[in-house]
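Lay summary. Proteins are chains of building blocks that fold into shapes, and those shapes determine what they do. In this project we predict the shape from the chain. Here is one chain we studied, written as its sequence of building blocks.
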Amino acid sequence: MVIPATRHTVAILQVRQLLQGAVARGHDGDALLERAGIAPALLRSPLSRVTQSQYAALIRVLSRRLRDELWGLGGRPLHLGTFAQACRLMVGCRTLGEALRTGFHYYHLQLADFVPRLVVDSGQAQLRLISRGPREPMSGYADRTFCFFSYGLASWLVARRIPVGGVMYRPMDLGCSSDAERLFQAPVRYHHPWVGFCFDAHWLDQPVVQTAQTLQAFLQDAPGSLLIRYRDEGSLAERIRRHLRRHLDGDMPTLEAVGRAMALGPQTLRRRLREEGQGFQSIKDDLRRDAAIEFLAQAGLTLPDIAGRLGFSEASTFHRAFKSWTGLAPGVYREQQLRLRGRPGSEA
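And here is the predicted shape, written in a compact code that computers can read:
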């Protein structure tokens, strides 16, 4: 059996927040979701998830329909091509610091709702998004997404994942970004007057290694390339996830067994996972949930087949587990997704 890649899935909360600008401007949210290959009924289940490709497809759908690279979330549209032009300016720079300042200066001229700034102090660099006015849920999601995409772009420019020391969110952002710690692999603090993140300032001296030639392929894959390219594959949680994936169709190794495979004692493994904001059981559950979502998109697999591939002895046990993970029965989830297959205009 070929083990699936089992990419991390995206919380439906992110889909709901991404869609709110278009809905506020009178667009049919269900039609936009279906065009991206996302069943609208998933919005009614707070625990449900979508694949990264579905989330990226929704971003493309919204950008084209609204002619806005901030998807209707800001005070005025961010014209199509803004991101590509910023990237062209940045790949011509010598260092990451020069590139970020160049890109932020360009965006400063385009953005109506916040100002991106690079602040360096005592050996630490901070990206800060300074609001130009009161923030609301719609504009708040635009800030946080711009922040994460800035991080992905910075890592791409130097072709290395930049370790983040911390993520700075405002009190209003609490409860709005369930995946932030995993995406940045850093603690999130909710007491700042801005959105941003910090990292060691020596990274600003790293040379920009991307070129106009590599930019073309990067833009073709965006925004998907920003979502997954520089995830921290070396973190303990990701190493455990890869190890467990090899045992997906059988009995999952215990924490002690995983610790022996990684030459770590159980207490050390638990402590290091806590430092990453992770837990062993949640890693196992998330892996099975994400793999189940991938399998359910394959029409040739029956529910008992999927249950077996996920290590469940009975389909009924898988049924209960999937419903606890997503709020939906696996049959319902599959029906909602597969009925969109082949629908004209679907981008999934």
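What the prediction tells us: The radius of gyration is 21 Å.
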